[in-house]
Specification:
By secondary structure, the chain is α/β, with parallel strands linked by helices.
Length: 148
Amino acid sequence: MRPAIISFEQAQDHIIKEVLHAEQKPYLVLLMGDPNSGKSTLARRCRESLYNNHQLIGINQISGDNPDDVVFKYARDFMIIEDVFPCGNINSYLQRLFSRDLDLTLFLTSSVSAITEGEWNYLTRRENLFFTNLGYIVENSNARIKRV
């Protein structure tokens, strides 16, 4: 079964709502997708909104970017990780730091219709650890580089 497709703005609203209502902190989000699909913009907007409107402290991280002490200092309420396609290190990294897995995974693309059948199969494989919690496919029509 394929995940629901939502807009960039709906993704931002969803992440903010999930962080605000999370029972376990920090709320761990993975944004993945093509280069220039809007991962950094979405992460930045969520972080700024959560801090400016709700005084929540979190960190955006490009896979493996920050040392552990920085993550612990700033990932109080949430952590948003950005990656093109994740490698096995993300789950082991989160297990080591927080003793748990991701809470939400979103896949960003400029065009859902351009996702190949092979990519759909990869994204929806049940045994794929990253996508057992794949919440949404985010179609960002404003992405800097368009999929064709």
